[in-house]
Amino acid sequence: MKNNEVLPGKLIAVEGLDGSGKSTQIHLVHQWLKGMQCKVFFTEWNSSELVKEATKVGKKKQLLTPTTFSLIHATDFADRYDRQILPMLKGGYIVLCDRYIFTSFARDGVRGCRSEWLKNLYGFARIPDIMLYFRLPLKTALERILTGRSKLKYFEAGMDMGYSLDINESFRIFQGKVMEQYENIFKLFHCVTIDAMKPIYEQQDFVRKIITEKVDIAQFQKEGSK
Amino acid sequence: MNKKQFYRLPPPGVDSSKLSGVLIVIEGMDSSGRSTQIEKIAPWIEEKGYAVSMVGLKRSQLVGDTLDAAKQGNVLSAQTMALFYATDFYDQLENRILPALRAGYVVLADRYIFTLMARDIVRGVEYEWVKSLYSMAVVPEAVYYLNVSWRTRVDRTLSARHTLDYWESGMDLGLSRDWFDSFATYQRLMSTQFRRIQKEYGFEIVNANRSSEEVERDLRLKIGSLLERRYRR
């Protein structure tokens, strides 16, 4: 991963377990920046049109191995990175990423992909200017997901790992391992840890404070809006 | 046999202990006569009593169709294309090549990671990056590189098809709007990369400027003795 070129934009990424509330927080950031007439762009993990198709086929047929699962997400990300993230950064936007390459490091790491290989794979991606990790106890994250949502998906629950035939149980085990990976990764990469147990508005206040400290917001406001 | 089975380590979750088959790769640039040779060699190996499984590039169930569609539009970056092809490669490696090798088959590959690597590097992807990308590939028992002079390749391409192919001419690279010039430059760039990869990965070079019969005779000799050695120790 290299940030050898200074770009006019800023890259902000959120990471955390399912149920950590990171999507809510980044959504609120998005609303805040839009409200201030900032040049801002929001993007999610795994949403590029072109490769969606292949992912769908693979997931449906359960043909994916840890390696191809990892590669297909890397392909998807690379496409989105080249076409959206990088151009938007070059065009002077604040780019908000709901999950970034660390999601792959964590999930694929649990699936047995070696960290050295993964780091090389994503070597083309810039390290975010601000990285926020939403931390909460595993138990709480699981409660939020398992009571809130009706149906878990096969790969999402880590069913391919054969931990358990019960999808909820498999999800519990898988998420526990993902969390371990996250904790290790964020020892290596500089990030801001957010206590995801705090009330939503308190977390948001904190997040906005960090962003204000590190980003000169006025610089991103559109002409005539200041 | 104490030969290394994977360039670095096997893909996660892969049991590499029972690979009793033999992986043979035929590499070569476009119009090197590669496919013709494979078509003739496969039945010959079967005549000798060994089961053959044939594999090639871009034939996986996973992304084969999507890749074709993507190539049509030519909108993906070199990096994304490289990843797409790698997905396709590993899908075939894990779902076809490894099962066949476990079952004791002779796996005959019409090109392998080397072509993919050369194409990626020519398009500006870093050598070390692709090397790591393909580091979980099985090391073939033998790689036969069908080497053809530039003149022969041009003659063969034009006499067979009377036209040039968009990708084989590297038109996506914007080397020249003139197809012939682009073809010439692209083929030269590919040659250079193949030589670099050959030095590191060690192919056996087969002179394919000769007639197809002569090349076939040569390949039979090499493959015949290889199979003897591997299966009838």
Task: Summarize model confidence as the mean pLDDT of chain B.
Answer: 89
Count of discrete alpha- or pi-helical segments spanning 4 or more residues of chain B: 8
Cα gyration radius of chain A (Å): 18 Å
What's the number of extended β-strand segments of chain A? 5
**Lateral strand order in the biggest sheet of chain A:** 2-3-1-4-5
Helix count of chain A, per DSSP?
Answer: 8
What count of domains describes the coordinates of chain B?
1
- Distance linking N and C termini of chain A: 35 Å
Going across the major beta sheet of chain B, what is the strand order?
Answer: 2-3-1-4-5
The succession of helices and strands of chain A, N to C, reads: EHEHHEHHEHHEH
Q: Regions of chain B with pLDDT < 50 over 5+ consecutive residues?
A: none
* The CATH architecture of chain A: 3-Layer(aba) Sandwich
Shape, principal axes of CA atoms of chain B: globular
CATH homolog superfamily of chain A? P-loop containing nucleotide triphosphate hydrolases
CATH class of chain A: Alpha Beta
- Poorly predicted runs of 5 or more residues of chain A: none
Condensed summary:
The complex is a heterodimer of chains A (226) and B (233). Chain A contains 8 helices and 5 strands.
Task: Outline the structure in words.
The complex is a heterodimer of chains A (226) and B (233). Chain A has 226 residues and is of the alpha/beta class. Chain A contains eight helices and five strands; from the N terminus they run E-H-E-H-H-E-H-H-E-H-H-E-H. In chain A, helix 2 packs antiparallel against helix 3. The two termini of chain A are 35 Å apart. Chain B has one domain: P-loop containing nucleotide triphosphate hydrolases (Rossmann fold, 3-Layer(aba) Sandwich). In chain B, strands 2-3-1-4-5 form a five-stranded parallel sheet, sandwiched between helices. The radius of gyration of chain B is 18 Å and the shape is globular. Classes of the chains: A alpha/beta (226), B alpha/beta (233). The interface between A and B is medium-sized, with 30 and 29 residues.
